[in-house]
Amino acid sequence: MIAYWILLLITAFFAYTIGSISTQRLASQLVFRRNLRRLGRGNVWLSNFRRIYGIPGFLKLLAVEVVKDLLPILLGGLLLSLKGHADAGRAFAGFCLMMGRMYPVFNRFRGGHGSVALVAAALCVDLSVGIAAAVIIAAASWFSRYLTLGAVAGALVVVITAILVVEERLIMELTVMIALLVIFKHIPSVVRIFNQKEERLSFKEDITYKLDDKF
Asked: Which of 58, 115, 126, 207 could form a disulfide linkage to 151, CB 3.0–4.6 angstroms apart?
């Protein structure tokens, strides 16, 4: 039993820590040599990264984000497989990863909305659930032009499909909790949409920051 709890603690620590690391901030400072918080909309989310660095930069970073989120989830499955609970390990790691994404210790517990982590966790729990979430997030975001609606729609799909598809109760409950965290995090944005104060998704690159460059 002690060994089981140790494996859980290692999984939780690693997944939460990786989730707390902002790939966008690291890429901006180490690769592009700019502070993302001082550019575009002044946040470290993927949407702001896209405004500054365009679609190609966004897609490259998105790929890195997916890999970064998959690593702790797969590690959780590997560690808990030692006790015969690989599926539960992946689901638990996904939950801890989401907590790190939304409440990162490295950013005063103020994080992003976790759409990428949601898809990564869903894929590792059940391939069909993850694919459904990814498709719905992309489609809803594209047609509504609101990333918030895409994330909420994807989370709702995860809740429904997890209940219908995932047989083991503990894994299903962890998956549903991950999706509910995403919905909870987006409540303020949904309120802004109803009040018509939320900005729509734009595919135009923001180059106004370049005016600050010294010539």
From this structure: 115
